[in-house]
From TrEMBL:
<dbReference type="Pfam" id="PF02615">
    <property type="entry name" value="Ldh_2"/>
</dbReference>
<dbReference type="InterPro" id="IPR043144">
    <property type="entry name" value="Mal/L-sulf/L-lact_DH-like_ah"/>
</dbReference>
<comment type="similarity">
    <text>Belongs to the LDH2/MDH2 oxidoreductase family.</text>
</comment>
<protein>
    <submittedName>
        <fullName>Ldh family oxidoreductase</fullName>
    </submittedName>
</protein>
<dbReference type="InterPro" id="IPR003767">
    <property type="entry name" value="Malate/L-lactate_DH-like"/>
</dbReference>
<dbReference type="InterPro" id="IPR036111">
    <property type="entry name" value="Mal/L-sulfo/L-lacto_DH-like_sf"/>
</dbReference>
<dbReference type="InterPro" id="IPR043143">
    <property type="entry name" value="Mal/L-sulf/L-lact_DH-like_NADP"/>
</dbReference>
<dbReference type="GO" id="GO:0016491">
    <property type="term" value="F:oxidoreductase activity"/>
</dbReference>
<keyword id="KW-0560">Oxidoreductase</keyword>
């Protein structure tokens, strides 16, 4: 079965749900099964199995943590990237700068998860050697949830910071056109035997994936999330063409700075070419990683104890009205992942049907 026909049926089903206000039917799928199906889809399209497994792991990690906007629902879009030539499933990244604690990877259009996984390994090794590492990855495709890579660094005992830049999807403050990327940022702090503290956020009010989820689920957007293609505020996900920055000028400023750090240092400018109308807009992302070895500053167990004390102190503070628990960054997602490991995750039934059809195609 052609994947485009399956995707079309999925879109038609979503449109029917929206027209009658019906919530989508969902099914529970085990994490291992989700990974297996995702690997089959990508491997069948020329991606080395190791890279297909990395992409599948990042997508399923997002679904398990309650971030379906960055989960397996992205697979049909990734296939479109392959068809358009934006994603080379057989691409091999090239390390073109390697100088002590600093490195740069030219991803050469390989899958974002494969390129970033390579960079995470390099950042960990160099941080162990130098105390800190800074790497840039250019010319890659959608990296998935930035928090996955930051958490991997934290689980290795490192402070991990990951940021990304890409094509214009969000209005720069004061404009009414798509002019900067939604520019995700993730920071992970190792906490010894506890799960890392994990901040994972977009520079927009919400990630594009959440708007696409609302479209698929037939639910309206909240005011202040998006503009139409001609710059009017909208709550209709079918009309939403431009995202809005978190905190106005603050979110827009972050996105601009991330373009300078991730794209320009990586010799892979995105925004000038895209906004200048130089041909088709390619679906490219760039990223930067910072890793800091806690052990180079102090004994890791003492650092973890201080992190635990900080968390416990905040959790004991008086709660605001209606708040049952004071949550730390990443805590809710961590609980969801623990539950998903035992019970699987719920995804839309039509999406699961589509993915199985794509795996058979």
């Amino acid at each position: 079965m052609d994947w485009r026909r399956a995707a079309c049926r999925c879109m038609v089903a979503a449109a029917k749900r929206r027209s009658i206000g019906m919530a989508p039917k969902k099914v529970s799928v085990g994490l291992d099964e989700l990974r297996r199906v995702a690997v089959r889809i990508f491997a069948a399209r020329g991606m080395p199995e190791a890279n297909a497994a990395r992409v599948a792991e990042v997508l399923v990690w997002a679904d398990a943590g309650g971030h379906g906007s960055h989960g397996v629902g992205r697979i049909p879009t990734y296939l479109k990237f392959i068809e358009a030539g934006d994603l080379d499933p057989a691409g091999v990244p090239l390390v073109d700068v390697d100088s002590g604690a600093v490195f740069r990877v030219d991803a050469r259009r390989t899958a974002g998860a494969a390129a970033l996984s390579l960079a995470v390994g390099m950042a960990e090794e160099r941080a162990r050697r130098h105390g800190v590492a800074f790497g840039v990855v250019g010319h890659t495709t959608h990296i998935g949830a930035a928090g996955y890579y930051a958490q991997r660094l934290a689980e290795a005992g490192l402070v991990g910071i990951v940021l990304s830049a890409g094509v214009p999807l969000m209005a720069y403050h004061g404009t009414k056109v798509a002019s900067v990327a939604t520019a995700p940022l993730s920071v992970a702090i190792p906490a010894g035997d506890r799960p890392p503290l994990l901040l994972d956020m977009a520079s927009s009010v919400v990630a594009l994936g959440k708007i696409r989820q609302a479209l698929a689920n037939g639910t309206p957007l909240q005011p202040g999330w998006a503009l139409t293609a001609d710059g009017r505020p909208t709550t209709d996900p079918a009309e939403a063409g431009i995202q809005l920055p978190l905190g106005g000028a603050k979110g827009a400023g972050l996105a601009l700075m991330f373009e300078a750090i991730a794209s320009l240092l990586g010799s892979a400018p995105v925004l000038v070419e895209a906004l200048g109308g130089a041909g088709r807009r390619r679906h490219v992302q760039n990223a930067a990683l910072i890793a800091v070895d806690v052990a180079k500053f102090r004994e890791p167990a003492g650092f973890a104890a201080d992190v635990a004390a900080l968390v416990d102190t905040l959790k004991r503070l008086p709660k605001a009205e209606g708040v049952e628990e004071i949550l730390m960054p990443g805590e809710r997602s961590q609980a969801l992942r623990a539950r998903a490991a035992a019970r699987g995750v719920e995804i839309r039934a039509d999406l699961w049907d589509e993915l199985q059809a794509l795996a058979r195609a």
